[in-house]
Amino acid sequence: MMKKLVSIIGVSSLSIMLAACGDSSEENSNENSGNYIPPSSSVVSGQFFNSNETGKYFSSEKSPHFAQYGQNARHCYQNYNDYYFESDKTMVFGNPDLPPSDFKQAASWVENNFASALTSMGISEQEFFEQRTNITFFALRNLRAWLYWRDINNFTYPNEFEQWNDSQKYDWATKTVKSMSTDDAVNLILSSDLHYSSREELIIEDKIYVCLHENNQPWGWGEGTAMGITIGAESIVTPNNVDKIIQHELIHTIQNVLSTDFDGFKLPRWFSEGQAVYLSGMSVAKKADHNEYDPTLVVYYSDEYGDISLAYEHYALAYQYIKDVNSQTTIITMMKNLKTLTFDYSIQLNSELDEDHNYVEVFNNHMKQQNGSPLTVTEYRDNYHSLMSSYAN
Ligand SMILES: [Zn+2]
């Protein structure tokens, strides 16, 4: 069974691409303060806990994956997994030798800016936690693989199952896992796999998981992940615009919650960064300057070129256009629909576009251009500057 499982996991991990964000500089900025929602300055209260007493760890997974925890949280699941400060909405993990004030400050920063980030995105906190997948991606991928291979005996399979081709079985297994309740999925996993022994190993709490790092560079200080956020300790270095940076990273967290399934992150880089830059009130390129960059060609981090601050401002401009024309509500609906689709590697291989084929489908279904005609991914790549020219006038 394990051999089959690995081959499936190997295929779908190709679709995962995340990258840490820069600390976009604000000098010479084209003001976007209208989109900035200053956080409340309240100091949140909470308490320190030992995970060995509560059973809640940063991660209990034997193979933690960056799709879940981000690129920069390794120390939190390897070394500082079992000591945390818990507030109403956060659990802050990090080196126990750091001063307690670092943990408390992180909880306050995150809680206060989380409220702003939710407002900017246009969703409620309740919706955030309802949309969030409460079981680790890795466990859900295993569950899908077992269903696909019909390795689970105490499960009722559809009558047509044996007549289906591989792609139909895979789609059914994916949708079945996505539509399962948390309790049903946990029970099925625990009854099917000796590797997992308790519910706690699988469950993600209804909290923003915060991992404190100890890097002394302001560059790459924050990273938004499916679990929450990795940020620096206040006593080591605090970047300028710390609130905007935390809001930006928490918008990445919300993106993950709304649109990422256990096959990984599906949004192109220009979209994810553009949304985070624009809605956190960071600097946006002027419409008239659209010729400075080709944002919609940047699907992956490796596509990014030139000055990063300039690139980020243009990602935000590309986002501003689709938001102005289509509304934030429509974009959120599109992102939620993205999460329901099944990634199919054979379709991706045959696609002419680098973008995730599920993203292409939802974008083409939902987005319109300024004149009311449908806007496709291809059109937004190929005709970006002519669309922007009309938009600028
Ligand atoms: Zn970012």
Tell me what you see in this structure.
α11 crosses α12 (308-326). The termini are far apart. The chain is built from 17 helices and six strands. The model is unreliable at 1-20 and 22-29 (pLDDT under 50). The chain has helices spanning 2-12, 51-54, 66-69, 74-78, 100-121, 125-131, 137-148, 166-179, 182-192, 242-259, 269-279, 308-326, 328-340, 345-350, 357-366, 377-382, 384-392, and strands spanning 46-50, 83-87, 90-93, 208-213, 223-224, 228-232. It has 393 residues and is of the alpha/beta class. The chain has two domains: 11-130 and 204-392, Neutral Protease, domain 2 (Orthogonal Bundle), CATH 1.10.390; 134-201, no CATH class. β2 and β3 form a beta hairpin. Zinc ion binds next to α10 and α11.
